[in-house]
């Protein structure tokens, strides 16, 4: 049985055990009563308990040695494990312009707005990336960083829940949103960096052209997956009052710029997807989840079984036996 000691320096105390035994033996056999001669006692046969008494000092030495070994924490290796994790740096870039209120997505037979379904699917995506650093940027007329790269996914989900249409001035600044997302990854040294950009419109705001933002992503080695959201054609969009209650619906013509989204993805080595319904959107994020996996091998570690009990309890037992016998049946008189 191979043993490894967690506290090997305690083993140096083993050198003191013979000294303790010798000193104990010297005290035990020192004369308590001095006689001129022992001749009158020579005919008395020695008691068999005398030999047992002589063994007590050995028992004390073995007990002390066991306790010292227990202090050194002996351990037995039972296996070696290499922890593996999948990690990557991802920025989720989401469109929250007014058109994202269009209710052309369905779930459980009910109509929902694009932004509500997108938030739900993104929430599921975040939950699957436990080893990733994630960031979130939203955009309408300008970009807004919801949270920087983080491993605190609970905080990120809470931040996502607060995202709503109207958070920032309206418009669709695709280039500025992408630029802000790429900027979040600019100084990151990770080998894998991606942006997942979702929009339902055409670029009509912002100071940065989408193609220039894509060129910057390509130069920095950032891969961009683009998603075009919306069923296409005419979509119903609710009109709200000041209290947020729906008054009526008006129709909105889809104006998704698919050639632009295709171009951004091709430039950066990503892919373009079209999400026309809830199921398709879920499948898209599931596909990206599968595509962007990178195995990280953590340092290996040994699984150890603690063995100090094998020495501690016998050592204590022998010590109790030695003390008990020394103070009772084998007690030295006077």
Summarize the model shown.
The protein is an alpha/beta fold. Helix content is 38%, strand content 26%. The protein is built from 9 helices and 13 strands.
Report on this model:
There is one protein chain. By secondary structure, the protein is an alpha/beta fold. The chain has 2 domains: about 5-30 and about 40-80 and about 300-325, no CATH class; about 90-295, Rossmann fold, CATH 3.40.50.410. It has helices at about 15-30, 50-70, 115-130, 155-160, 175-185, 210-220, 260-270, 280-290, 310-325, and strands at about 5, 75-85, 90-95, 105, 110, 135-140, 145-150, 195-200, 225-230, 235-240, 245-255, 270-275, 295-305. The strands form 4 sheets. The protein has a 6-stranded mixed beta sheet, sandwiched between helices. It is elongated and about 125 Å long.
Keywords:
334 residues, alpha/beta, Rossmann fold, six-stranded mixed β-sheet, three-stranded antiparallel β-sheet, 38% helix, 26% strand, elongated
What strand line-up does the widest sheet have? Answer: 7-6-3-8-9-12
CATH class of the largest domain: Alpha Beta
How many individual domains?
2
Helical element count?
Answer: 9
What percent of residues are in strands? 25-35%
The stretches of 5 or more residues where confidence is low (pLDDT under 50) are none
Number of strands: 13
Examine the secondary-structure arrangement and name the CATH architecture of the largest domain: 3-Layer(aba) Sandwich
Compute the CA-based radius of gyration.
39 Å
Q: Assign the CATH superfamily of the largest domain.
A: von Willebrand factor, type A domain
Say what the CATH topology of the largest domain is.
Rossmann fold
Structural class by SSE content: alpha/beta
For the termini, the CA-CA separation is 47 Å
Mind describing the biggest β-sheet?
6 strands, mixed
Mean pLDDT: 83
